[in-house]
Specification:
The protein has seven helices and five strands; from the N terminus they run βαβαβαβαβααα. With 207 residues, the protein is an alpha/beta fold. α1 links the parallel β1 and β2. It is globular.
Length: 207
């Protein structure tokens, strides 16, 4: 049995979720490294190669999809098992794309702690005789573009609904929906930024 005793790397940009995951794993005796985005995670891996990566998808600078594609195209990190966490990318197409990148599993937020810990324990004791097939870079860009475009349409529709609702709610109910509107705007802006970068990469890969 191939038991992996290295640290677990948790990649998450929301501080309270990052802290919750770290505390949960520490409580079970796991050593944990943390990063707030994919770029920071790659810098951590340069110092210490983790036994397992747990990563959110929607993050600034470098999101989970781009981060895992980097892992899978590097011989040093291709075999590291990856768990995707997301509260945003939840459609069957999103999950299929995540798994096609060589993820070991996909967990929706909010997590079921008991199920989460069982999954982590299983992955850390699982034999890994073969490496995931790295996705061709151009294939990755096209699939990633499709997921971002789909998510942008969803976020714009959500923002429009929330904005209409805000005009009809009594003042004592507006605060919660205003917070939702602001979070959705932040997510929409992050998706738009990433999408612009992907369009550039697709153009460059075709030249």
């Amino acid at each position: 049995m191939d038991t992996n005793t290295g640290p677990i790397l948790v990649v998450e940009d929301v501080p309270n979720i990052l802290e919750l995951l770290k505390i949960t794993l520490n409580f079970k005796g796991y050593q944990v490294m943390t990063a707030r985005d994919g770029q920071e995670a790659l810098e951590q891996i340069e110092k210490t190669v983790p036994a397992l990566v747990i990563t959110d998808i929607l993050m600034p600078i470098m999101d989970g999809f781009a981060f895992v594609q980097k892992l899978r195209t590097d011989p040093k990190t291709i075999k590291i098992p990856v768990v995707f966490l997301s509260a945003t990318y939840l459609t069957p197409e999103d999950k299929a794309f995540a798994m096609s990148l060589g993820a070991s599993c996909f967990i929706e937020k909010p997590i079921d702690t008991e199920e989460f810990l069982l999954t982590i324990a299983e992955l850390l004791t699982k034999e890994r005789d073969t490496s995931p097939r790295p996705m061709d870079q151009h294939e990755f860009y096209l699939g990633y573009r499709d997921r971002l475009e789909s998510k942008l349409r969803h976020k714009n529709a959500q923002l429009a609904r929330t904005q209409r609702l805000l005009t009809t709610l009594p003042d004592d109910q507006k605060e919660a929906y205003q917070a939702l509107f602001e979070q959705s705007t932040h997510d929409r802006d992050a998706i738009e930024t990433e999408l612009k970068e992907i369009y550039k990469m697709i153009d460059n890969s075709q030249k």
